Sequence to fold (481 residues):
Amino acid sequence: MKIALEFTPAQSPEHQSRLRYAFQLFCAVYGHEPILDSTKPDSADLRITYSGDYGTLQRGKVLRLQNGYRPRPLARPVPRPRCFREDGTTTVLFYPPENSAQVDWLAEVFEWISCADEYSICARDSVGRIPFESSVFGRYGLDGRIPYAALAMWFLQRAIRKLVPSAEEKAQAPGIGLTHAIVCSHDVDFMPLGYFSVLGRLLKNSIIALQQSPSVALGIFARAVLFALGGANPLQGGAQLARSEQKSGITSSFNFIVRHNHRRDANYRIENPAVIELMRWLQSTGMEIALHGSYTSLDTCNGLSEEFEILQKHGFQPLGGRQHWLRFSLDRLITAVERAGVLFDTSVGWQDHIGFRAGACFPFPPYNFAEERPARFLEIPLAVMDQALSPIAGEAFTAVAKLLASSRMYGWGGISLLWHPTAFGGGQLPIEIGRTFYDLVNARSEWQDTWLSARKFLQIVRHRYIEVGLMDRDWGASDQC
Ligand SMILES: [Zn+2]
Fold:
């Protein structure tokens, strides 16, 4: 349906820009057509307005939202979330309405998607990341597995349906035959380049695991001993995984590190012919080759752009990637990904929790606060990383299944899952974690999930973000082969 958005003169340009962005995103997710030209509100089926002036409100259906949002300096945290319940559904609100006014759902969407609160957090862990405990989830005991931004959109759509009962209840998927999409990804941090490199890594992994679980550490150590005596290598480099995926009919994105400036970077070098050979082979099987931004890639202005260029020089056309160790702050990440001119990023998630860091179970352009506009790339939020899962058989599967069910309930997907190639075989993580991946792959038909690479996913959804005006008309056009 066609929906117009009206502001009041009291709302500043920055205020309007932020809510317009949330509105466009809502339209992209639900499949609405936004009417952004204020001279043409009559062509809309419905108007969402912040104006309290009923006298001048003309014909047609009108949804009036409370003008609740208040722009604030980025150094100031988000207002304390308050519990909100309506017709049996519970969520939290940063801007609870006065009296019985309609919640400012666009403001709620904006706060989540922009991750504005993260800019106010000074705490960093030893890697340089914002600790979960310091996030809005940690501070207020919120459940990161609830897609709060999607829930706010759902409430908004419900308010619309009260005025226009023929409006769809659910977000309309952007592709024919697509019900719920999952972007499958693998960060290649380690490659088995010889006997001693594998043995050394297995011993190192068992020492690291000792801090968390002696039994897992013992399992890894036992596999190291078996490998030393001529047994199988439990640390995969990606080829075996790609073969299994090919057999299952899914595609995925393999993210490679191309620079080594820090001891935490990959054990391989991009110049190694064996590495290039693997990448070419993966590409030939339909897998996507993307960039795993190195540990220090955001420490310099052009670091990430240069790494994309290195991949290009080797004959690949990366469209995006993810930061190694999830080492990023949003201001640097947004600037760097835009400077590189690529189409997507998949870093916004946690390494130690599953869930929706930006409240989103759908792709979105992050908000560029420095220029008060949507960023020029899509974030495909990272909802699950292998190492965040429970080592107990069954628990990991149930946790991810529940998360995917939430995503399915509020949208059509577009979240990314990460299993490192070394997560299979019990050489780094408990062996159940690798099995969980295949259990999820096998359950996908029953759940009507489509697993695919970021590149393939973008080809299906890009038009949605262009049509609502979040992206330029030619955005991603060069990859429509
Ligand atoms: Zn990594």
